[in-house]
Structures are given as C-alpha cells and as structure tokens.
Specification:
The chain is of the alpha/beta class and 164 residues long. The chain has one domain: HUPs (Rossmann fold, 3-Layer(aba) Sandwich), CATH 3.40.50.620. The chain is built from six helices and five strands, in the order βαβαβαβαβαα. The protein has a five-stranded parallel beta sheet, with helices on both faces. It is globular and about 50 Å long. The chain starts with a strand and ends with a helix. It binds adenosine-5'-diphosphate (ADP). Adenosine-5'-diphosphate binds next to helix 1, strand 4, helix 4 and helix 5.
C-alpha cells in the first residue's frame, strides 16, 4: 500500500536543504505531502501562499508531490491525509534535542504515526532558513543555499523591509 509521508515545516524560505529532503523523501516514500506551517511563531518573512508557491515552482512536474498549508498538530494533519510518517531532517546536535522532543510528543499524541529522520546531505549540513536571512542582510552571497528564484525573492523582500 502506498501511503504518503508528510514533511512539515516553516520553509521561510525553502532552502536547497529542504529541496534535498523533499527529493530524498520522495525517493523513499513515493508520495510526499509538503505541509507549510501557517502558524509560524517566527513572524515569517513570506506568507503561507508565497512559501507554497515557491516550493511548487521549484518542484513543478515532480510526480507524487503535493504542497499545501497546514495549521495545528502535525500528527492530526498527517491522519487527515492518510499518512503514517512524519519526515524530518536533523542537521546538528542542536536540532537533535528539539526534534527528539517533538518526535516523542507526537508519538504520545498518536502512536500510529512514526517520525522518520534523514541526515542532511553534506553540502547542506549547516544550512538553515534563519542563517540565509542573516547572510542576505549582511550582504553575503547565497547561491549555494537557495535557488535563483528564491534568492531573488528573499533579497527583494529583505530590501523592502529595510526600506520601511
Ligand atoms: P528551519 O529549521 O531551517 O527554519 P524548517 O522549520 O522549515 O526549517 O524545517 C523543517 C524540517 O526540515 C526540520 O526537520 C529541519 O530540521 C529540516 N531541515 C531544514 N533545513 C535542512 C537541511 N539543510 N538539511 C536537512 N534538513 C533540514
């Protein structure tokens, strides 16, 4: 039976690290639902619709992939989608702590939904959305971390914000 996996996150913005996990998750599960968090407590720089559109544009024509917004508990969302796996990435020891807590909490909320972790690809091991925003603000180059379309959108948005 082919049941989808859910890859939930803030994707603000989607990085090459996220796209790598999407690609590898698809290869593992065949069907992947990328769930873009609407309630990002982090004061997102891009709206949910913008983050969804960016991921869709980068993955257009990719079979087995759906990108959608979600609110509330990831396990509850996974259940509505008939998914039994939550896919996450762990980049560092710092990630491990919070990801481990989240996985145990999710498992106590719904024991039938498993969390599956992927290690990052080597080139993206230290890549985070927060870091790329800081690099752009400091005037650094980000082509290694973001696709050209996402890099343009981020540079434009941060420039607009700085002009406020
Ligand atoms: P961030 O932590 O960069 O704000 P998200 O909250 O959108 O990203 O992350 C969603 C999931 O993707 C998390 O499990 C996170 O650990 C994982 N992830 C983010 N960036 C990478 C990367 N470069 N390599 C592997 N996993 C990643």
């Amino acid at each position: 039976m082919n049941r989808p996996a859910v890859y939930a996150g803030s994707f603000d913005p989607p990085t090459r690290g996220h796209l790598d996990i999407i690609q590898r998750g698809l290869a593992l599960f065949g069907t992947l639902i990328v769930a873009v968090g609407k309630n990002v407590g982090k004061n997102p720089i891009f709206s949910t619709a913008e983050r969804i559109a960016m991921i869709e544009a980068e993955c257009s024509g990719v079979e087995g992939l759906t990108v959608t917004g979600f609110d509330g508990l990831a396990v509850a969302f996974a259940r509505t989608q008939g998914a039994h796996v939550l896919l996450r990435g762990i980049r560092s020891v710092a990630d491990f702590e919070s990801e481990f807590q989240m996985a145990l909490t999710n498992s106590s909320l719904d024991a039938e939904i498993e969390t599956v972790f992927l290690a990052p690809s080597e080139s993206y091991a230290f890549l985070s959305s927060r870091l790329v925003k800081e690099v752009v603000l400091a005037g650094g180059k980000i082509d290694r971390f973001l696709t050209p379309a996402v890099a343009n959108a981020l540079e434009t948005r941060l420039r607009e914000k700085n002009d406020d």
